[in-house]
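Pipeline run #58 for the internal structure catalog. This entry was flagged by the ingest filter as a single-chain record with no existing model, so it goes straight to prediction. Upstream metadata was stripped on purpose; only the residue string is passed forward. Reviewer on rotation: M.T. Logging verbosity set to normal.
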Amino acid sequence: MLFPHFSAVLVERVFTECGVVNLVARTVNDTASCPGCERPSDRVHSGYERRPADTPVGDQPVPIKLTVRRLYCDNALCGRRTFVEQVAGLTFRYGRRTPASRRVLEAVAVALAGRAGARLAVVLHSAVSRTTLLRLLMALPDPSWEAPKALGVDDFATRRGQHYGTVLIDCETREPLALLPGRDAGTRATWLRDHPGIEVICRDRAGSYAEGVRVGAPQAVQVADRYHLWQNLGTAVEQLDPYKPYLDRRWAEGHTNAAHLHAELKELGHQGNYQIISHYLPPRRRRRIRVVGPAQPGLRQVTGWIMRQGEPGCGPYSRAATAPDPCPPPSGSASP
């Protein structure tokens, strides 16, 4: 009852060595079914040892040394000539760990993905690389779902300012349903036509979103969520702001200190706080081109100029002055 996945094998030995629980077992079934045609066979081709890793026991890893057989497939119509017997609950094709250990790593991959998941797997005595966890995550099937009654539509950036996509969310369960490439109306309309039954679509004010909903789901009611309502209200308030032309003019004149500009606006009657000014100026700082002059020479550089004579590399402490002359004067001649 504690280890049901070992019921189909004969456990020959269990021993502990260096903090590891080693388990030696072998298969005992007389026949095994071919995975291609499901025809049973008892003709043994050969045998070899597999070493799947199981879940830890008593905070100790459990490697398994399992002897399995390779058998012939006697079905002439089957494309397989040989196959390896599998043990339900213990092995699967090309598996390096038991299904129970794989399920644990899949849960870690879903929760933490790559690097963080790999660090947790070490604590669980199931050390794997981050790429292994990502492969397990990508191999999981997508969860099944039905077309929601209320659908949320918004954009997301794979690279901010350059590459965008569309995320579709079930507004009732708050679970993501699909990620669509781009933000064009055609892709969104096609998805909506393939998933009928949506009654309410919550979206932002982008024109392409409105067009996609009108074409793909004309029966749906289009609404805006609280976030986009506040965002639109904030944008409208910023555009009714009478002090923006003054700020733009002062910025063009070269006055870029947010604290000074805030003090000037207060004298003009502005009731807003400093954060409003500091949030308004960063886009202009990013667009401004800074011209930086040459840096002042350092003490070491000036000292080098004084010590060197003539062209660089010809001073008394240069490498050329200390290296041997490749063309020494002939013997008997006076040195220069």
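catalog note: Residues 99 and 291 are 62 Å apart (CA to CA).
catalog note: DSSP finds twelve helices and 13 strands in the chain.
status: ready for reviewer M.T.
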